[in-house]
Automatic annotation (TrEMBL), chain A:
<keyword id="KW-0067">ATP-binding</keyword>
<dbReference type="InterPro" id="IPR000795">
    <property type="entry name" value="T_Tr_GTP-bd_dom"/>
</dbReference>
<dbReference type="GO" id="GO:0003924">
    <property type="term" value="F:GTPase activity"/>
</dbReference>
<keyword id="KW-0808">Transferase</keyword>
<dbReference type="InterPro" id="IPR009001">
    <property type="entry name" value="Transl_elong_EF1A/Init_IF2_C"/>
</dbReference>
<protein>
    <recommendedName>
        <fullName>sulfate adenylyltransferase</fullName>
        <ecNumber>2.7.7.4</ecNumber>
    </recommendedName>
</protein>
<dbReference type="Pfam" id="PF22594">
    <property type="entry name" value="GTP-eEF1A_C"/>
</dbReference>
<dbReference type="InterPro" id="IPR041757">
    <property type="entry name" value="CysN_GTP-bd"/>
</dbReference>
<keyword id="KW-0548">Nucleotidyltransferase</keyword>
UniProtKB/TrEMBL annotation, chain B:
<feature type="domain" description="Phosphoadenosine phosphosulphate reductase">
    <location>
        <begin position="42"/>
        <end position="265"/>
    </location>
</feature>
<keyword id="KW-0547">Nucleotide-binding</keyword>
<keyword id="KW-0548">Nucleotidyltransferase</keyword>
<keyword id="KW-0808">Transferase</keyword>
<feature type="region of interest" description="Disordered">
    <location>
        <begin position="289"/>
        <end position="312"/>
    </location>
</feature>
<dbReference type="GO" id="GO:0000103">
    <property type="term" value="P:sulfate assimilation"/>
</dbReference>
<dbReference type="InterPro" id="IPR050128">
    <property type="entry name" value="Sulfate_adenylyltrnsfr_sub2"/>
</dbReference>
<comment type="similarity">
    <text>Belongs to the PAPS reductase family. CysD subfamily.</text>
</comment>
<dbReference type="Pfam" id="PF01507">
    <property type="entry name" value="PAPS_reduct"/>
</dbReference>
């Protein structure tokens, strides 16, 4: 191509960072309006989409275009006027690309909130300024804390309906912040907005000059998305063994995978789990290019100095920080299937690239997200329940605590009969340490819930 | 109260930052490798359109220096752009791939499918697709669908389980958590896999530019005979156009999507280089499908309905 330089200029202009975030809000909190405004004002709603919404709105006898029709993609959702399933939206500003998991707020769709939060770096929790912090708000904060979403934004919406009063905002922000902090949420940013009127969503509000913080979009654009991977131990689940066996590459044997956490370097001594064998990283191929160093979440191929027996499901980790493997797992889980999970249930457990047989040994407690009260020995977990479980696996697994790694501390339970995803698991304790002191007192004096 | 950390950290300040294209590429490669690790007979749907071309490029990178461990499947409507068929065949040869072709025309000739009154063959692709999946016992079928294309697709999982009839039930989708894709399925069922789920049209073009990927020439502005129908510029052909009252004219156009000639419209454009195309898309006020796809305009739930029947 004759215009290589210009092409690189175009590509550089697009080389922005990526933020995955989730929204959560109750039915009438104005979530669709907020999402609609973010999409609209970032030019992500194009003319033909708006026309389709206007046409559909008119067809139902509505006078103004119903922005919820932009986001409710399924026939059943439009018919019922509610969001049933997570939808993913995409928009961009010159500074950043965004993937928005638009999650429903209904209690019976807790699993969808969990789904959206599992990959989010930031969660926006909406409240109606007239109602303040309600049960649903606490539930959303608890899900964000449980899934360890690093950043939480409290968007206090409908400020126009409370006269843009600073005191209303301050009271809600304080109540929410102390609750969320008690759950261990690290960073909370409260923003007073009116999604309908456009205050502090994309442009700073002239109606609230007492507020000096960022707009929602400014915050989304500037929140740091890259933690320092060199703080985390290296974890490399082997996905696939690449052995071309061609004339050109007769002896190539590479272990393909996506670095789950940390930084890997050529020359690092490594241990392979669960076998415990050791070797050294001889080379790192980053999708066709040899590199000396690679980090999470890059997809690479490793070659080792020794010919070891390594296959899909093994974990390669720097010897200095290799995890230990165990067959007994304690975890907090969200049950996502309609059929219940019971003690004695035989399941498959999928952790990184490894799937093993497992049995549910115990369900010590179930948690009510509304007030964080615990119910000891519930016997089973029903759809959308969150609880503690103890699982015994047929083979040792190298799980990290979910608190240390969302990637190597998470797992799925799968029904071996038909493949249904039953349960989403997070190894280790549920909420961060701060929760131990500040959580509301349990309703009973039992000790089944150990945050 | 904790206030926002005023971090104006530019991408370049952090040595471990990945650009959004690198992040999307790593994610897509991870998806390809998961399928290679867990399925017996995967296949890549390949139409010669830009999304399937990018998919193949990612698969080539994912398994290098070994060959791509999947074959290709083209659902041939019989109304293809010749440039695209030519591109398809050259690509298959260059990478020594195996190509399966499922032909809509064959089904029509055998009387198993009937031509629609509007002449559009796009919805007819579902039957040959499902037939090819069943006959070849494919258990994972890669598609280039992106969630930004359409609101029903925005609901699609990366791993999307299809029943023995190829059907999609949006209310019975498996929750998809973290990067733990569940590809379990019973005999007769298969999984549709969408590695480009999180890509937008602009990402695809930026990636094509970055990776210097060759595309069929019809993606760039060229002089072409077209005629107007339903607000779109359609290319003439044996598929059924122009009819009486429709007149051919020569215009400077390009295509944003490549599909069946009967329902894929060209857009007026002078963007004849990749940087011009990127600039044009960044400024466009129309979505890709809204601008150029007739089949999505049929009803509010056209895509959802077709996907329920097994369309990709």
């Amino acid at each position: 191509m004759s215009t290589t330089h210009a092409v690189e200029g175009v590509v550089d202009a697009g080389a922005t960072s990526l933020l995955r975030f989730a929204t959560a809000g109750s039915v009438d909190d104005g979530k669709s309006t907020l999402v609609g405004r973010l999409l609209h004002d970032s030019k992500s709603v194009l003319a033909d989409q708006l026309e389709a919404v206007e046409r559909a709105s008119l067809g139902r006898g509505q006078e103004a275009p119903d922005l919820a029709l932009l986001t409710d993609g399924l026939r059943a959702e439009r018919e019922q006027g509610i969001t049933i399933d997570v939808a993913y939206r995409y928009f961009a500003t010159p500074r950043r690309r965004f993937i928005l998991a638009d999650t429903p707020g209904h209690v019976q769709y807790t699993r969808n909130m969990v789904t959206g939060a599992s990959t989010a770096e930031l969660a926006v929790v909406l409240v109606d300024a007239r109602n303040g912090v309600v049960e649903q708000t606490r539930r959303h904060a608890a899900v964000a804390a449980l899934l360890r979403v690093p950043h939480v934004v409290l968007a206090v919406n409908k400020m126009d309906l409370v006269g843009y009063e600073e005191s209303v905002f301050a009271a809600i922000a304080e109540e929410f912040t102390s609750y969320a902090a008690s759950l261990g949420v690290q960073e909370i940013t409260a923003i007073p907005i009116s999604a309908l009127a456009g205050d502090n969503v994309v442009t700073a509000s002239a109606n609230m000059d007492w507020y000096g913080g960022p707009t929602v979009l400014e915050h989304l654009e500037t929140v740091p998305v890259v933690a320092n991977p060199s703080d985390d131990p290296g974890r490399f689940p082997v996905q696939y063994v690449i052995r071309p066996q061609t004339a050109e590459h007769p002896d190539y044997r590479g272990y393909a995978g996506q670095i789950a956490s940390g930084v890997l370097r050529v020359g690092d001594p490594v241990t392979v789990l669960p076998s415990g064998r050791t070797s050294t990283i001889e080379a790192i191929d980053a999708l066709g290019q040899a590199v000396d160093v690679a980090w999470a979440p890059q997809s690479v191929t490793l070659r080792l100095t020794d010919d070891l027996d390594i296959s899909r499901g093994d974990l390669i980790a720097p010897t200095a920080s290799a995890p230990s493997a165990s067959q007994d797992i304690e975890a907090t889980v969200c049950h996502v299937a309609d059929r219940p999970l019971t003690v004695g249930h035989r399941v498959l457990l999928k952790h990184t690239t490894r799937t093993v047989k497992a049995i549910v040994k115990d369900i010590p407690s179930r948690l009510t997200l509304d007030d964080l009260s615990q119910h000891p020995a519930p016997g089973e977990l029903a759809a959308n329940d969150i609880g503690r479980i103890v699982v015994r696996t047929a083979e040792p697994l190298a799980l990290d605590a979910y608190a240390d790694s969302r990637r190597t501390g998470s797992f799925l339970l799968i029904d071996p009969a038909d493949g249904t995803t039953l349960t989403a698991g997070m190894a280790g304790t549920a909420f961060a340490e701060a929760a131990a002191d500040a959580a509301p007192a349990p309703e009973a004096d039992d000790d089944g819930w150990d945050f | 109260m904790t206030t926002a950390t005023v971090a104006t950290e530019a991408n370049g300040d952090n040595p471990y930052a990945l650009s959004h294209l690198d992040a999307l590429e790593s994610e897509a490669v991870h998806i390809f490798r998961e399928v290679a690790g867990e399925f017996e007979r995967p296949v890549i749907l390949f139409s010669g359109g830009k999304d399937s071309i990018v998919m193949l490029h990612l698969a080539l990178k994912a398994f290098a220096p070994a060959p791509v461990p999947f074959s290709l499947l083209h659902v041939d409507t019989g109304h293809n752009f010749p440039e695209v068929l030519d591109y398809r065949d050259r690509t298959v040869e260059r990478h020594a791939l195996r190509l399966h072709v499922a032909s809509v025309q064959d089904f029509i000739d055998r009387g198993e499918l009937r031509e629609r009154p509007d002449g559009t063959r796009n919805p007819l692709q579902t039957v040959p697709l499902l037939d090819a999946i069943e006959k070849n016992r494919f258990d994972a079928v890669f598609g280039g669908g992106r969630r930004d294309e359409e609101k029903a697709r925005a609901k699609e999982r990366v791993f999307s389980l299809r029943d023995e009839f190829g059907g999609w039930d949006p209310r019975r989708q498996r929750p998809e958590l973290w990067q733990l894709y569940n590809g379990r399925h019973s005999p007769g069922e298969h999984v549709r896999v969408f590695p480009l789920s999180n890509w937008t049209e602009l990402d695809v073009w930026q990636y094509i530019a970055r990776e210097k990927i060759e595309l069929p020439a019809i993606y760039y502005a060229h002089e072409r005979e077209v005629f107007a129908r339903s607000g779109m510029w359609l290319a003439p052909g044996e598929w059924g156009g122009p009819k009486d009252g429709e007149t051919l004219e020569t215009r400077l156009v390009r295509y944003r999507t490549v599909g069946d000639m009967s329902c894929t419209g060209a857009v007026d454009s002078d963007a004849d280089t990749i940087e011009a195309v990127i600039a044009e898309i960044a400024a466009s006020r129309l979505t890709e499908r809204g601008a150029t796809r007739a089949d999505d305009k049929m009803s509010e739930a056209a895509m959802e309905d077709r996907k329920r029947e097994g369309y990709f």
